[in-house]
Amino acid sequence: MRIIRSLIVLSIIALIAFYIIGKTNMTPKEAIDQITLVFDEKKNELRTKKVPEKMIADQKLEGDLFRWIGKDTDELLDTLGEPVRKDKSAYDYEWWVYTNETTKYMQFGVVEGEIQTIYATGLELDIDPFTIGDSYESIAEELSFESDVSYNKGLSSYTFQLKEEDIKRRPLAKITNDLFIQPYFDTFTDKLSSIRIMTGEVLLKHRPYALQYRGDLPPEPNYSDEEWEEIENGMEQQIFDISNVIRNFYDKPTLNWDDTVREVAYLHSKDMAENNYFSHYGLNGEGLKERLEEKEIYYFAAGENIAAQYVDAPAAVEGWLNSEGHREALLSTKYTHLGVGVFRFYYTQNFLTKP
């Protein structure tokens, strides 16, 4: 078969050569050399059209934050210094948290010294060509938002299936086979609220969308009670920090942390998880008012946000931001204090106006 193809090519070259000789003063050798040169140029053009995946990502994403995936923590320490905290996550990576508590919040997910995921929000982020507050339309022009997004790992294949609401609030963009961006949008303003960058393996661990797959899935989290307590404490602080950075973005005053209110919130999250319900009212009919009275907490006004089964703290806050009643509490100017309680994947925020 290969010999036949070669004979066909030679015949074509010969015919073209005879044509060129008839139209010019070239010798047969000159005509064939000219044809060979044209073939070589076309082959080179085809070679240059194949652009490596990393180069494609670099061309789209110029901001420094995108370049941290795959880098080691020594470089992170050299550039950003020691993190504010190191929080255990529910996904076998450790969050390194960097924040100034008002205008910038970043957390880097680290596995064995390597950065595999990043979540960030605030005004002072290097995420060119984007900025927090950019319109949905402008970002959709740069990133491709599809209802089906694929990821291949060895012989295994995975397809994440996004609903219309997912594409509106938290679409997924595939940059390379192992680099994904999940922008979160404030659907009340249609503007970028925060951004998450992650490898395919992290995306599989989170499973934030419906999934069709052929192959294996990472195992579900399996931690001791002591490990879960550490994870929950980290998520509580993350929710508090992210809430204040988002409030600052919307020109709202910073909230103060309250340990006693945190305990009230934690006990409610724990009660919902252990008794398999989801409500502002416990199975005994008592609400936030009664729970605060039981701890003898004095206040002028109070509000509560609850959430369940979000993959982590940042996702829970973004969920509240996109729900009218929860958003009102999250961005209210009347509150002065906040307590956050997390138990497993149940989340509670208690807001108070205190004297």
Number of domains: 3
Largest sheet: 7 strands, antiparallel
Q: Tell me roughly what share of residues is in helical segments.
A: 40-55%
Order of helices and strands: HHHHEEEEHEEHEEEHEHEHHEHHEE
Q: Please tell me the CATH architecture of the largest domain by its name.
A: 3-Layer(aba) Sandwich
Mean pLDDT: 88
Distance between the termini: 89 Å
Please state how the strands of the largest beta sheet are arranged side by side.
1-2-3-4-9-8-7
What would you report as the Rg, rounded to the nearest angstrom? Answer: 28 Å
Count of strand segments: 14
CATH third-tier fold name of the largest domain: Pathogenesis-related Protein p14a
Task: Please report which band the strand proportion falls in: under 5%, 5-15%, 15-25%, 25-35%, 35-45% or over 45%.
Answer: 25-35%
How many DSSP H or I helices?
Answer: 12
Low-confidence stretches: 1-10, 15-21, 35-56
Class by SSE composition: alpha+beta
CATH superfamily of the largest domain: CAP
Oligomer: single chain
Classified by CATH, the class of the largest domain is: Alpha Beta
